[in-house]
Amino acid sequence: MSQEDPRTASVAAAYQRFDPSAYLRNNYAPPRGDLSRPSGVGPWKLRCLAETFATDFLEANRQELGRWLREDPGAFDWSAYSWHACLIEGRGESWQEKERQLRARVKRVLPIDVHQPQPLGAASPAPLPADALVSAFCLEAVSPDLASFCRALGHITTLLRPGGHLLLIGGLEESWYQAGEVRLGVVPMSAGMVREALVLGGYEVRDLRTYAMPAHLQTGVDDVQGIFFAWAQKAAGVEV
C-alpha cells in the first residue's frame, strides 16, 4: 500500500500480521450457509477466462494461493465451493474439472497495491487493459475511509478496458474482522455508497444485489451485516 498517506501506511503495517490460514478457517471452513441448494444468481455466472491473473498485496496470501494452484499438501480445500459453482451453472461439469480448468488458466499470481496509481506497477507482466476484473472483500477492508476506498476503486479501474466488466463483492456495514491475532478495520459500506462510488468512478451499474447475514451465520469473527454483489461496466471513454 502507498506509503505516501500515513493512514494507508498504518493499514499496510497492520496487515503484516494478517494470518491467511486463520482467515480461511474463520470464513470458509466449514462453509457458512447451505451449499446444498442452488441460489438465484442472475448474471453471476462466471466462466474461466482464457487468461487469468490473480493478485494480492501480501506475500503470505500469494503463497497460500500458490499452494492451492500447485495442489500442495495442506492447501486449503475449496472443493465444497467448486461443487456449488458447478451446481449453479448446471452444465453437468464435475467440481474436479472446474478446479483443473481454473488452475490451468491462472497464469501468474502477482503483487498488487490498490492505493498506488499503477496498482500492478509500471512493468506488470499482465496483459492490460483487462476485459474483466473481480475484486472480493478487498477495497473496503484495506482502506481507512470512504475517500480512500473511492481512490482505490479509481486505481483498479485503470486496469480495465473501456466497456470491460467489474464484479465487486464486499461486506455491508462491517467495521472490523479477525484474521488470527490481528483485528483489522473495515470501511462500513451501504449499498447506496457502493452504487455512488461506482457511478462516480465511471461505471454503469448493471446489477447490484445484497444479502443480509442471518444471525446464526454471525460467528463472532467480524461484525458484517450483509454482502453486496455489484456488476458494473466501465463506460466508453473512461480512462481512470
UniProtKB/TrEMBL annotation:
<comment type="similarity">
    <text>Belongs to the class I-like SAM-binding methyltransferase superfamily. NNMT/PNMT/TEMT family.</text>
</comment>
<dbReference type="GO" id="GO:0005829">
    <property type="term" value="C:cytosol"/>
</dbReference>
<dbReference type="InterPro" id="IPR000940">
    <property type="entry name" value="NNMT_TEMT_trans"/>
</dbReference>
<dbReference type="InterPro" id="IPR029063">
    <property type="entry name" value="SAM-dependent_MTases_sf"/>
</dbReference>
<keyword id="KW-0949">S-adenosyl-L-methionine</keyword>
<dbReference type="GO" id="GO:0032259">
    <property type="term" value="P:methylation"/>
</dbReference>
<protein>
    <submittedName>
        <fullName>Phenylethanolamine N-methyltransferase isoform X2</fullName>
    </submittedName>
</protein>
<keyword id="KW-0489">Methyltransferase</keyword>
<keyword id="KW-0808">Transferase</keyword>
<dbReference type="Pfam" id="PF01234">
    <property type="entry name" value="NNMT_PNMT_TEMT"/>
</dbReference>
<dbReference type="GO" id="GO:0004603">
    <property type="term" value="F:phenylethanolamine N-methyltransferase activity"/>
</dbReference>
